[in-house]
Amino acid sequence: MAQPPRQMNLGLFVRPCGHHIASWRYPTTHADAGSNLERYIEMAKTAERGCLDMLFSADTNSAWTAEGEGMNRQHYVAWIEPFTMLSVLSAHTKNIGLVCTASTSFDQPFSIARRFASLDLVSGGRGGWNVVTSGNETEALNFSQLAHLPKVERYKRAKEFVQVVKALWDSWDADAFTRDRESGVFFEWNKMHALDHKGTHFQVRGPLNVPRSPQGQPVIVQAGASEDGKELAAETAEVIFAASNQLANSQAFYNDVKGRLAKYGRSHDDLKILPGLSVTVAPTRQEAQDKHDELQALIHPQVGLGLLSRRIGFDLTNHPVDEQLPELPPNATIGTRSDMMIDLARREKLTLRQLYEHFAAARGHHSLMGTPADVADGMQEWFEAKGCDGFNILCPTFPDGLNDFVNLAVPELQRRGLFRKKYEGKTLRETLGLKVPRSRYETRSQAAE
Ligand SMILES: Cc1cc2nc3c(=O)[nH]c(=O)nc-3n(C[C@H](O)[C@H](O)[C@H](O)COP(=O)(O)O)c2cc1C
Fold first, then answer.
1. Same structural domain for residues 355 and 371?
2. Quick one: 314 and 197 in the same domain?
3. Which of 308, 298, 372 is nearest to 344 (CA)?
4. Is 256 helix (H, G, I), strand (E, B) or coil?
5. Of 96, 106, 155, 227, most Cβ neighbours within 10 A?
6. Ligand 1 test: best mutation among 133, 155, 359, most atoms within 8 Å of CB?
7. Are residues 166 and 310 in the same domain?
8. Ligand 1 and 223: CB distance under 6 A
């Protein structure tokens, strides 16, 4: 039988006013969107109208910007904690996946396993966990630590953390809870599995006090692109949120990570790679360009320098904006994304202003701007050249940018057969085309029956 044509997976990278750093000053955005439930609901419903696979919510355990970096001019400093938000959004949507970020560096596996298993249950199997090790130095200071763990240590902890969480999600077989009123037996003993994990970083007895969800386990998403990051992803991730602004780099990353799957007994389709993509789409190229120019004109230099300082991990706020990047000490904390920015600045001899303008909308992710056909061409090229399995979409503004994407770009992708016209499945796994994971106890409990 002929295989159905391969279609893209598309996430919406949630950011209340939009991803452009000056978006909150744009006339049609809502400056209070980060604390306004109605705006998030509107965003989720629009994304679902466009049949997108998932809402993807990044997060940090700190105000993200440090004081003195033009902090009081930035919109992304305080927002509603994404887990709480996605739980609410689950009641306002039916199909779209709900993925948010939780750090393996500051939390405990039991709490994370419990929280995501619950999100998965309340949403009918639409939950996902974006596993991050955290690249922001200021977070450690909120967790009684003087400094962040070195990156190698963070990844060692992350590996064990994810193993424990996944094992806890197998605590109960899907049919464990018989709830038989007549016999008075609520669940079957042999379908409950305590973990008794004793590792280097964690000791966890289990079982988890949340039943198994309709999709077996929440989907594991991962963001992090160093050697350790790629290895962790190959072992455990089902979706990678990647950052790349060139097709050749994206292809290399795609082949590299997919090539590592076999050694963990996994196949090519067990992992979807979705690079971030900033889209400015309008009926004409000129209108798209005008929108972009209007936003760029709203960037205050302090905000631009703040963005660079945060992303590079070095205070550039007092450097002249029309000079090039100064010599920098090596940075062990931030990782692959700061390297990418520094490389670009050096290669193209950009001034700090040019550098922050370059990153203002997409922060190093790939960008497309133009008509629906231009945008669809660009997306199709990366998708067909095996640079990705789809994209995590960054809209420069909300709600306009998302409306434009859903009203203009999505129909063009659908017309080309590159994207679904309706949701076929109920769970996030079904929507993404991922397998339901077998419980590690399945054979044992079946044999015991
Ligand atoms: C595309 C992308 C998205 C990320 N999103 C987050 C995030 O939402 N919150 C966070 O704390 N860290 C985030 N990170 C940081 C990673 O968890 C990791 O700490 C950092 O990338 C350093 O690891 P690496 O060198 O392996 O990339 C992200 C990284 C990438 C590449």
1. no
2. no
3. 308
4. helix
5. 96
6. 133
7. no
8. yes
Under 8 Å between Cβ of 351 and 321: yes
Give the pLDDT score at 449. Answer: 43
Whether the CB-CB separation of 123 and 90 falls below 8 Å is answered with: yes
How do residues 325-336 score in pLDDT, each as one tens digit? Answer: 998 877 655 667
Q: 364 in ligand 1 pocket by Cβ < 6 Å?
A: no
Q: 133 CA distance to ligand 1 centroid (A)?
A: 7
The pLDDT tens digits of the residues spanning 106-122 come to 999 999 999 999 999 99
Identify the domain containing residue 315 by its residue range.
Answer: 300-359
Q: Report whether residue 226 contacts ligand 1, using a CB cutoff of 6 Å.
A: yes
Measured distance CA(442)–CA(436) in Å, rounded = 13
411 prior amide bond cis, ω within 30: no
Residue 294 domain flag: no
Overall number of domains in the chain: 2
What's the 109 CA to ligand 1 centre distance in angstroms? Answer: 19
133 lines ligand 1 (CB under 6 A): yes
Q: Which atom of ligand 1 lies nearest, measured to the CA of 135?
A: 19
Q: How far is the CA of 13 from the centre of ligand 1 (A)?
A: 14
Domain match, 370 and 325 both = no
Q: Would you say residue 64 lies in a domain?
A: yes
- Please indicate, yes or no, whether residues 316 and 263 belong to a single structural domain of this protein: no
**Residue pLDDT, tens place only, 169-203:** 999 999 999 999 999 999 999 999 999 999 999 99
The pLDDT-based confidence of 448 (bands split at 50, 70, 90) is very low
More confident residue, 171 or 3: 171
Look at residues 359, 378, 396 and tell me which one is the last residue of a structural domain.
359
In a domain, 191, yes or no: yes
Nearest residue to 213 via CA among 241, 185, 249, 173: 173
